[in-house]
Amino acid sequence: MTSTDSAAPVSVTDSAYDVFARACPSRGTLEHVTGRWGALTLGALHEGSFRFNELRRRVDGVSEKMLSQTLQALERDGLVHREAQPTNPPRVDYELTPLGHEVAGRLLALIEFVEGRMDDVLVARERYDAERGGR
Amino acid sequence: MTSTDSAAPVSVTDSAYDVFARACPSRGTLEHVTGRWGALTLGALHEGSFRFNELRRRVDGVSEKMLSQTLQALERDGLVHREAQPTNPPRVDYELTPLGHEVAGRLLALIEFVEGRMDDVLVARERYDAERGGR
DNA sequence: CGGGATCCGGCTTGATACTG
DNA sequence: CAGTATCAAGCCGGATCCCG
């Protein structure tokens, strides 16, 4: 809402990419999922249900604002379910929806695959840097 | 190289996230892969080998600079192979490495899954907006 | 505790122009 | 054609304050 934004309630990482969102609607959701905090949040929630500040601890380095935005975006996309209890102090639990679990599963498959091949990547990087970085 | 950057030859989307790259090396590669242009580029290259400007056409909306940076990052990670021929005019072809194909495959699996469920997502979004966006 | 609103700095991006 | 250098602008993301 800082500038020319007015219609969209939540954006997170879309504002500048409306063009693409229009051309390909899934792009927006994909950005939420694969984005930095989205991926980490899905990864955390894949292991169970957590409260806001529990998630903050698990998703290391995230600020309240970004976690809040990320959760809203994922909730809006139907990947995360938010359960608020009007107790005092308030208690809010977040968990993945069935769809969210499926998405998280595929995402984690990709992540784990890449992590499993990091040694190859590291070798490739060194070669690349040795050839071009030297000069 | 705009400011405090000096050691890393190529960054694309890392400069600000060094902290995380340090904590989890795969994070950087993941960002290259799942990032906006990275994903589109891998998707395009998954279908075959292409020249620079061919890719520019296929990856709609990408600027020369971003395509160049993206390709360099992916090449550095060992996911893309660059074949330059010293002819005149110069001809450079890009194609996925075997590792790149595996990664692209999993990425596309995720993307296609999300695209296949976009109707669910859209419904969820409308419900969400109806409840909270109304006011 | 759970989260919304605001301010602000810095990185990322996108045109443009130039080289080989 | 295949890129690189420069420049300006814009968005992301963090810190802070505040409310329920």
From TrEMBL, chains A, B:
- What species was this sequence derived from? Streptomyces tabacisoli
Q: Which PANTHER family match?
A: HTH-TYPE TRANSCRIPTIONAL REGULATOR YODB, TRANSCRIPTIONAL REGULATOR, MARR FAMILY
> Which lineage ranks, top first, belong to the organism behind this chain?
Bacteria, Bacillati, Actinomycetota, Actinomycetes, Kitasatosporales
Alphabetically, the GO molecular function entries are:
DNA binding
The protein's UniProt keywords, in alphabetical order, are: DNA-binding, Transcription, Transcription regulation
HTH hxlR-type domain mapped to chain residues: 24-122
Q: Name one Pfam family in it.
A: HxlR
Please state what the protein is called. Answer: Helix-turn-helix domain-containing protein
Q: Which PROSITE patterns match?
A: HTH_HXLR
